Amino acid sequence: MKSVFQPAALPLSCVSVSSGAQRFITESSVVNISSCPITYYGQQYEQLYVNMTSGYLTICFNGFFSPETGGDCLVQRSRGAQRFEFFINPGNSLDYGARENLPTIQNSLQCTVAIGFDSIVSVVIGFLLNNYGTQAALVFFTYSSDTLVSLSVYKQLHTFVNMYPPGTVISSDPETCLSLTCNETAVLHTSSCGPLERCQGNNICVLDATCTVTGPTIVDVRGQMNSIQDRCAYSLFSTPSLPDFQILGYFKDQRRTDVSFVDSVTLRVDGHDIHLEQGGRVQLDDSTLTLSSSPQLVHGVQLSKDQTGVTAKLSLSNLTISVFFDGDTAQIRLEGPAGSSVEGLCGNSSRSLSDLRLSEYSSTSCEMQYSEPADSTINCTSVTERCNLLKEAPFSSCNSDIDPEPYITACTDTLCKYPAVDGLDCQFLKAYARACSLHNHTLDGWTSKTGCSSEAFCQDRTCSDHEFCGEKTVGGDTRCFCRAIFASKYQANNSLGDPTVCKENSASLTLVGCLLEDKDIDYSALHLNDPTCRGQVDELTHMVTFSFNSSNSCGTEVTTNNSQVIYKNTIMTQNSSSDIITRHDQVYIDFSCIQTQPDIKTETFRIRDSSVIQHITSGVWDYTLTMQSFTSAGRTQAVDFSTEVQLDQKIWVELKTDGLDGDVVIVVTDSCWATGQASPDSTPRYDLIINGCANPADQTVQVEDNGLGTSNYFSFNMFQFTGSSGDVYLHCKLHLCPKQNNCVPTCPAAAHRRRYARSRYEGEAFISMAWTH
């Protein structure tokens, strides 16, 4: 028989056909066509399974032909032929018009696998499998060797059982939303729901994405990981379709200054803030809410709380958002229409952290970076082994749906730097387990294998802003600890609290509750010198304040040092005579206030003025001093501008203060004198009070209540300077004295003496702006 392709015959059961060589095959054979592989359905084939049986020639790509199972095969009647031949032609010479007749073929012909045989009726039948790279075409031809009349049929190669035109949907599963389509370039395209979606049924894909925020780490909806290095507020989730909704995350330090943890989550809904905080506390704006396992509707948000944490759920514009927070981990689940945009740390990973940082909700120093020495007690190898439990059973059953690697990386990065306390050795495992549960993986037995609990750590323990909840001992009781950065400013000064606050009539010292607990000091056992004076605890900040004032000195010791007045008290532990032993050091914290005594003030009053008011500020004291004259002993008849005062008429002058605390300070009049000129240093001068006492030379002068309170008065008989009929100016000098001191001047017994300046009885005197004869 003459060869179709003019080859030399070589029958084989396993045949390798190289480019340019022809082979004759007479029995079932596997033909190696790796030098010209054929690609269809995106699969590349390098072998052909050839068989001549039952009057058919079958050429298959994935195993020998079976009438029961079929396969990807070319099946052609052999028409009595006993052999067939293969030929691989490199280059593009055997296109035979395939590209012209198949316009969807975009690539150039690289090589051809030619298959042909002569039938007993002198008809040549052949197939050309043309390799166009990622595309392939089948050219079927037949011609009579006698008449040389030929017929060619061109098909783009899609399958060898059925041929599909471009754009045909080959198969579709409404329950899985999986479809197979022959695309425009004759390549099989598999389509299904996107990575953030799930099939709802009926070929409908919906958004179903989960974001996990645990410790300093965010695992976004695409499974990408990001880490927060500062203590700022960030946008976790937002979407352009909901401009009035946003989820914020706040990060703070705990035991180390250089590691941050998610501390709270806020839902901003239509201008209201719902804060999910540590310990399961939930606040609406500034009000604390009481929650239970039964959902409570607050501004369209369903809020509930159980032993695992707090859940907030709402539906907005066909998007269902569920936020869970247990004080350590926040998980946000989004369900809605396919293609919904997800922005924030949970969504668009291409945006930088600085773009998502919310400065208006952060402290001005939140971006400051800190560094601390490595913790030498941490065994990173052991930490890595524990974190890798996420790749073992029962966690491994979820690995195909939830990639464990971001959680493992977050776990190792954190625990190789931060001690495994406060439930942190379980935190990342628990976060992964809950993410799996949202995708219907129960992970039976994970808690017993890891020694973890599904319940929230530190549930219902509320700490202040500068505190966090932690373990007293590993696995033991919990309490509120000072955050590392907050505590550092006190530790630098070896202090337990803030500086003493000194005011005019009081003093106070505030100690930090969590620092006291660090020292194992029970604040309730502390008191001042007076054991009844104990600290007052602020339930919100846990700060303990000790104070005393003029009404209750609490045993305050008052001393003077030159111009200073020193108020001193001590915070100490309670002593009990019944205590035989003690296991704690005694606490003694001295605090004091030093106030400068007011400078002695000399005020000039012209006696022609019936009343003079002077405003005085000295040190912490701020008060007014009034000097007023009267014509009655009860000081009820004030001298005014129309009052006529006769020479030798008794006048009472009152020095009265307003604004002083009489339990703390006393007014002492040191001296008073009269002059004929406005200047207190002018002459002539006449003394009425000397060293706090009446001038012994003037028996009309009497001083009352001097050094006993915040006011005093004195009296004298009216006079004028000899040889002068002008004004008389009265000056007084006084000072303030601590009440604890003996402020009453010591005066000698009164003696009858003549006045230094004599007065004369002549004419009438009138008072207006000055005492005038």
UniProtKB/TrEMBL annotation:
Which positions fall inside the VWFD domain?
Answer: 209-381
> What protein does this entry describe?
ZP domain-containing protein
Looking up SUPFAM superfamilies in the UniProt record yields: Snake toxin-like
PROSITE patterns the record matches: VWFD (PS51233), ZP_2 (PS51034)
Boundaries of every ZP domain copy = 501-754
What SMART domains is this protein classified in? C8, VWD, ZP
Q: Does the keyword Thylakoid apply?
A: no
Pfam families annotated for this entry? C8, Zona_pellucida, ZP-N
The top of its lineage is: Eukaryota, Metazoa, Chordata, Craniata, Vertebrata
Gene3D superfamilies named in the record? Zona pellucida, ZP-C domain (2.60.40.4100), Zona pellucida, ZP-N domain (2.60.40.3210)
What are the record keywords, sorted? Disulfide bond, Glycoprotein, Signal
